[in-house]
Specification:
This protein is mainly alpha-helical and 127 residues long. The protein has helices at 15-18, 27-37, 50-63, 67-84, 87-94, 108-111; strands at 3-4, 7-8.
């Protein structure tokens, strides 16, 4: 089992797809890494040699920000926007969509469950 950037890559997948399990690497980035490391995209992870795994590790460490460092950068960027008090920062702070989507209807993923206004559900007595 290949372990790159602190992530165990799935054994039976092609390396092109397996690299996308690393946070910060998509399909395009995966293909660039494979081309730079001189590894074929059709090779299965279990068939990689130790030399190929080391080349992949070196290319990722040298050229790409992935996993913890990338997550930390993203959270700091969001925190910076919130500290500035700009529109995008306010939307993050309030838990609303940031990129101009409508919120009258929809946006439930970002806003969470509907909140009931007023009292609890009224119980109708049967007579």
């Amino acid at each position: 089992m290949a372990r790159i950037a602190g992530v165990d890559l799935p054994k039976n997948k092609r390396i092109e797809i397996a690299l996308t399990y690393i946070y910060g690497i998509g399909l395009t980035g995966s293909n660039q890494i494979l081309k730079t490391a001189n590894v074929g995209p059709d090779v299965r992870v279990k068939d990689l040699t130790v030399a190929e795994v080391n080349r992949l590790r070196q290319v990722i460490e040298k050229d790409h920000k992935v996993e913890g460092a990338l997550r930390q950068e993203v959270t700091f960027n969001i925190k910076r926007l919130m500290d500035l008090g700009c529109y995008r920062g306010l939307r993050h702070r309030r838990g609303l969509p940031v990129r101009g989507q409508r919120t009258h209807t929809n946006a439930r993923t970002r806003k969470g469950r509907k909140h009931r206004i007023g009292s609890a559900k009224r119980v109708v007595k049967a007579q």
